[in-house]
Structure formats: structure tokens, C-alpha cells
């Protein structure tokens, strides 16, 4: 008999040694929220010196200095006088929670795992494991900051390049005008002034994109013709990018007079951005931009399609993120599609993309009736 007892004693000591080897606090809690067993890490966590001063105490008081059940406890609906914890764990092997906790005046982030212990189908106690994930979180934040800084760098160099093109253009045209001041040909002057105006518009559009990203203004809608708006966007893009669009053909399928409530200025910017991306994808080459307007009973869909090479599958979920750009030679701010996305969202619509066989197809879907409040 005594050897059996010794054996049991040995096993219990072994088990405690294993638990104490685990550096994260482990706490066995009964349905009365009383602490039944802990490992050594729990003593340190709760600032207690020995096991007897811990056992039998309420878990919320011991671990979190609270006078009642913790608001984040997955068993908080459970009454302390019920015999078991059943409902909380129905069909689950564990419940996890991320919580803030103040330790020595420092705010720490803890991850709590709750594992049920079952006996004849009933949850008779719960093991709580406490992991301090503060350092891990800080590392994640640090990585995010580094990634943001890298995106900011790409963005700034993109803006600088994009602005540099029209600025260089204007500077060359002005130089050319100055060298020919003695010329009396008004056509010559008009042509040069037009070129400067184009470059100015191009620079202003880049600045407008940045402003609308940084500080989107409130959506004001009027009844307008989407077909007209799309034609205007096409003309603006051709006017601002005459060389890029020189070899590109346009097909616009739709009917004039497709009126509904939207913001024509924002909608034009959306299509300018989509068209500009297609032109840049053709990269001065030949091609076609196909636009199709389709109206259903309560939705309007506009498809913008090009065959300029497509977008790799792995990139599709990133292109709408601000600052994401893969444009050649460092031009591009990575804001275009992110702005398109927010314009469509403001109109309670949806912007989606598909790409296959070197083809890219954006779909803008807008409700014909704007929900109230817009
Ligand atoms: N029609 C398209 N064909 C191929 N790639 C595209 C097309 N439209 C967008 N992309 C890709 O999506 C990226 C993000 O576009 P966008 O947000 O407008 O930023 P940016 O044009 O400044 O790079 C582009 O850099 C490009 O790689
Ligand atoms: Mg773009």
C-alpha cells in the first residue's frame, strides 16, 4: 500500500516539475472561479511567494486584482454556484483572448488560452494559460513602421518623378520660347503656351490626387450622365498624355443620357486614373481601351478593359493598397487605384478587377439609387 502511495507521490512531483518547467503561468480553475493548481510561473505573475497562499483564491482576484469576474473572461456568463462550465465550451477545444493588463505600472498585452478539462462530458475545470505577447506586438509594430517608411520612400520618389516630367517639359518649352522671342508667328507662341498648359494640368492632377488622398472631401452628388463623364475622362487623359495615348484606340460602348445621382468630378477622376493605368501599361505601344456601360434594373456597371499584359495573380490583392506601385522607371505614386477604390466606396459601389490572358478588366458597379445619407 505504502509503495502505491509513494508511486503516486512520485508521479505528482514529476507532474509539478513539468508544470514548473513551463515559463508561462498555468492556472487550473474550478467552476467557483477558485484556483486549484498553479505552476511556479503563476507565483511570479501574481507576486506571491508560495503555493498555499495562492490555492483556493478567486482567479480574478489573484491574477488580475479584480473584485469580480473579469469582463474579458469567456466564462463571465457562468454563475459561481453552478457545478460545471458547460455552455461556454460547447463544441470548442479552447478559447483565446487578447487583453491589456497593467503590470508594475506598465501596460502589457496578454494572450489568454482557456482549455476545458472534461469528465463524463462535463467541463469540470478550466486551465488558463497566460502568455505575455507585449514584445511580440512591439516587434510587429516596429516591422509595420519600417514597412510604412519604405512605402513612404517609394511614394515620395514616385511623386518626385511624376512631377519632374511636367516640370522638365515646362522648363524646355519656356527656354524654347525665350530663344524665339523675336519670332512674330502667333501660332508658334500659341502652340508653346498650350504645351505649358498641358504640363501644368498634369502636375496639378498629381497634386489633386495627393490632396484627395490625404483629405477626402464630403460627397456631393447631382444628377449627371455617366456616358458624358466617361467621354470627358477619355478626352482629359488624351489631352494630358498625348504621346502615351498616340497609338491607343478607344471603344466606348454605351448610350448618352444615362443619368443618375453621382459626383461627376470624382467620377471623372476615377476613370482618368483607370485609363491612365491602361495607357501606362501599353507603355507607348499599340492597343485598345474598351469601355462598356451596362445598366441593370438597379445597378450601373462600367467595364474598363485593356490587353496590355495583365496583372499577375499574386499582385491583384495589393494593387488597391495606397502606395503600391509597380510602374516602370519609378514613376507612379501608387495612389491611383486606392483613390478609385475610395471614390467607388463613397458612392456605395464596388470596384473589382480580373486579369487573364494578358488582359485586365476593372469593373465599377454603382447603385442607381444612392442610399439615403449620402
Ligand atoms: N490596366 C493595368 N494593367 C496592368 N497593370 C496595372 C493596370 N492597372 C493597374 N496596374 C498595376 O497596379 C499598380 C497600382 O496602380 P495605381 O494605384 O494606379 O498606382 P500607380 O499607377 O501610381 O503605380 C500599378 O503600378 C500597376 O502595376
Ligand atoms: Mg495609376
From TrEMBL:
Catalytic activity as recorded in UniProt: ATP + protein L-histidine = ADP + protein N-phospho-L-histidine
Superkingdom assignment: Bacteria
Pfam families: HATPase_c, HisKA
UniProt xrefs under CDD domains: HisKA
Record organism: Leptospira fletcheri
Name of this chain's protein: histidine kinase
Gene3D superfamilies in UniProt: 1.10.287.130, Histidine kinase-like ATPase, C-terminal domain (3.30.565.10), PAS domain (3.30.450.20)
Enzyme class, broadest EC rank: transferase
GO molecular function list: ATP binding; phosphorelay sensor kinase activity
Keywords: ATP-binding, Kinase, Nucleotide-binding, Phosphoprotein, Transferase, Two-component regulatory system
Enzyme Commission (EC) number: 2.7.13.3
InterPro entries with a match to the protein in the record: HATPase_C_sf, HATPase_dom, His_kinase_dom, HisK_dim/P_dom, HisK_dim/P_sf, PAS-like_dom_sf, Sig_transdc_His_kin-like_C
Domain Histidine kinase as annotated: residue spans: 158-370
